[in-house]
Amino acid sequence: MLAPSAEARTGALALGLAALAIGWGCAADDGASRPPNILLILADDLGYGDVSAYNDQAKVETKHLDNLARQGLRFTDAHSPSTVCTPTRYGILTGRMPFRNGMRGVFTGVEGPCLIEPGRLTLAQMLRESGYATAMVGKWHLGMTFFDAQGEPVHAIDLPAETREERIAAGVERVRLVDFSRTIPDGPLSRGFDQFYGTVACPTTDWLYAWVDGDRVPVPPEKLLDRGPLPKHPYANDNRQGLIAPDYDLESVDLVFLERSVRFLEEHAAREPERPFFLFHSMQAVHLPSFAAPEFQGSTEAGPHGDFLFEMDFIVGELMAALDRLGLAEETLVLFTSDNGPEVTSAYHMRRDHDHDGARPWRGVKRDQWEGGHRVPTIARWPGKIQPSSATDQLFNLTDIMATAAALTGYALPNDAAEDSFDFSALLAGNHDGSPIRKFALHQTNTLDLALRQGPWKYLDHAGSGGNDYARPFLVDFALDDGAPDAPAQLFDLASDPGETRNLYYEEAETANRMKEALEEFKAAGRSAPAR
Question: Kind and range of the H or E element at 68?
Answer without folding.
Answer: helix 63-71
